[in-house]
């Protein structure tokens, strides 16, 4: 039953010509190598076509569109990758038209730049696709203002879109062979992390649980993102949802087994590896899973593992309710609009971006720098709201630009102007995905010389171009720090406290419904807890990259975050036991624990320490949860609300 997760109509690999399979196989083999090959082909092909036509510069705009769409491809389902790449292409094309129309307007250009900055900031609130489109809208407006492309607005926009479309074609190259490859890979990663969690049971537990929770969240987002576009019921994607649900149950049961002082049976790790193998295209297990279950926790663990093995062995699967609320397009648009109108963080960011872009545009009109549009580009890239700490981005981009400019200077000295420059262009394009996965500074190190080489093809400025880029970029970083960071007190305070309070409230809501197996909200509330904890960890990690005056204050939240994770894990583990034979706690005891968590959340939002201790019911069945709640309250009482 190899290839269980491909329907007969999907098995193009079985009937496709051998040359097609072999051509696409490297792209499928390794995500990193596949990304490097895609970006290299996407960026260099338009230049090669232009070279063959006798004018290499006609490939510049398609090459830039291809680079934008390629960098927007950060994995996920094919549907989400198409949306992000198309958004980047359309945003860049519109930006080219706007910039071309505003070129030569003098000081009116400053108002155009500020207006586009405000629009870009608002569009960026509409999720990942909106963020990519907004970035390229602003970037291409600035580039079109500063670089005298010979193409007309319509021709240039179509050229840019053609490059983005070419990049999308390469991103979708594996779709005919395995239409559900991204979803299957995401679920396989969950079971890979689950295998590590079982094999290293009791060792570095917190890190392993965090890795599993992160993989599970990504997998749910990937599968549900693809599933929402499927016409009718898709049995195999429903099976993937069921596998994710079983993996979540195994995770909770493992914690329960640990609390009982037991070791998980070796068959559990074997089951996780077997599921991962089938998802990778291997054969399903030849025999059903046999597992000893001598306690409620072990029964919960073995039951979930057996169900997962049966799912990949061909068992019929009924409709699985995903632990997420279905949100229609209308509701999403209304949510984005409400965030634009009432979100003070969005308003602050919009003002900061407009102010900084306006300052950079004023410098451009004063003609103090030779290529001042690079200063505006730096401001746009550093002030992106979803790329982490502004301070860290300014520092990393400054350092990355220094290194990249030096590399670009050396390349321009060593490589003569003309077709030979395609070789370093291909090398830097291949390195972009690697730098993007590592950090902002390393991506700048590879992106700076690539952009320098592309612009040099049009201007022929030579090595001096890299030096100009270095100065202009450092000026842009300084503008961000002076106008977009230091005058804004909100920049000095990371929103860890509100996220922490939200996670505590989510835990309390889940606890109230956790022991009612018939409650349809239980799975949804369970996922909301771990999503809230994941958001909290993300905010915390971004905050610790701020200057020490901010990061020192933020690190005081770490003990409380650890204590809150213990509460969530103790709740999930207790639920796993009660679902498989253990006695459930009374409703009064559950309400008391949930009320205590609500009191903690209210205290954190008010900024006051935990001064009083509400009574918790003395029930053995809820002992571990109550102990974890007391530990959380004690941690906050000792440290105060940070």
Automatic annotation (TrEMBL):
<feature type="transmembrane region" description="Helical">
    <location>
        <begin position="440"/>
        <end position="458"/>
    </location>
</feature>
<dbReference type="InterPro" id="IPR049453">
    <property type="entry name" value="Memb_transporter_dom"/>
</dbReference>
<feature type="transmembrane region" description="Helical">
    <location>
        <begin position="470"/>
        <end position="488"/>
    </location>
</feature>
<feature type="domain" description="Integral membrane bound transporter">
    <location>
        <begin position="360"/>
        <end position="483"/>
    </location>
</feature>
<feature type="transmembrane region" description="Helical">
    <location>
        <begin position="156"/>
        <end position="175"/>
    </location>
</feature>
<feature type="transmembrane region" description="Helical">
    <location>
        <begin position="82"/>
        <end position="99"/>
    </location>
</feature>
<dbReference type="Pfam" id="PF13515">
    <property type="entry name" value="FUSC_2"/>
</dbReference>
<feature type="transmembrane region" description="Helical">
    <location>
        <begin position="35"/>
        <end position="61"/>
    </location>
</feature>
<keyword id="KW-1003">Cell membrane</keyword>
<comment type="similarity">
    <text>Belongs to the YccS/YhfK family.</text>
</comment>
<feature type="transmembrane region" description="Helical">
    <location>
        <begin position="105"/>
        <end position="126"/>
    </location>
</feature>
<protein>
    <submittedName>
        <fullName>FUSC family protein</fullName>
    </submittedName>
</protein>
<keyword id="KW-0472">Membrane</keyword>
<feature type="transmembrane region" description="Helical">
    <location>
        <begin position="402"/>
        <end position="434"/>
    </location>
</feature>
<keyword id="KW-0812">Transmembrane</keyword>
<keyword id="KW-1133">Transmembrane helix</keyword>
